Amino acid sequence: MESLLDGFISPWESEPTNYIRNVDEYHMGSDLGRMDDLGNLLLNLSPPSTMLTERSPNASQPSAAQLITPPDEEPGSTRPEVVSISSSFFPGSHNAVSDIILRSSDTVLFYVNANAILRTSKNVFEKFLGFSLDDKRFQDTIIDIPESAVVLNIIVHTLYGLSCAKHNPPFEDLETAINRMPAYGLIPKVYIVPSSPLFDLLLSHAPIYPMQIYTLAGHFGIHDLAVKCSSHLLSYNLADLTDDMCKRMGPTYLKRLMCLHLNILDALKSIILQPPYPHPANRNCDHNEQKKLGRAWALAASYLAWDSRPDLSMHKVQSTFEALGDHLTCDECKAVLHSRIKEVIVKWVKVKGSFLGTR
């Protein structure tokens, strides 16, 4: 206890007081077991203002603002500026030194390597900047690109030959990025080719945006993309085409789209209008009896041809003709009917595939 209290000076007195002497006297005493008295003595060493007291129920509580409000900043002090950096193109990313910084219109920084970009396109950004990207004036400087971070991210990923699918960009931003590529010296059809990341990403949107993708492909002459997405246009009503859409896709791809619909419908009619081949006459079913099946088939085929669409499903064709078998009693007539239905289905599948793959 002497080592603990030796040299203790009261915070409100400059010299040792009798408190210390009282402790020494207590230590010299014989009754060392009364530790509660020692505790009371130590408690008396604290000034009244520092002693713990029970809070009164009526005592005022500090407000929340008083508890969380930081101290006022000193005059002239400035807060650090928040800088947004691309999660894919940050300093030292892609195992290359970042010697150029691209800044989007919403102030997101993209750290890129000039040589890596120029290997993809020698003229990239030259039309926009007025000088080649490897000019020394652009090294370690910030170049402002008037595009949003999402659009610029798509363009930079394309320059690096990488897929930006992990960022899940909306189709509208994909379309904007492709439309803006020529402004930066990029030809879209050079980068949107089969098996390329941007090609695959666009096709993933084809079930929902088939006409937008076809129009985009027609505008930039991306033939493979137009062919791939045309399978989703069989259900499109050509009457919904606007003048702007026709102008943008151009006359060549507009004609191809219209011919696709017309040729498929003509092929469908030629396939379904031919009735089943008659079987040899027998005792229970002669040629006159078989004519009933031919007339029923012609009626069903006329129904399909009248309301036919290029996206006519195999199920509808099959179910329409199979219903004719419910009224047949001849087993041989049923056999030739089912054989003809299978033949129609196979030809219909081949016709759609041939038109979609050779446009």
UniProtKB/TrEMBL annotation:
Region spans: Disordered: 52-80
Domain of life: Eukaryota
Compositional bias segments (type: Polar residues): 55-66
Name by which UniProt lists this protein: BTB domain-containing protein
Organism expressing this protein natively: Psilocybe cyanescens
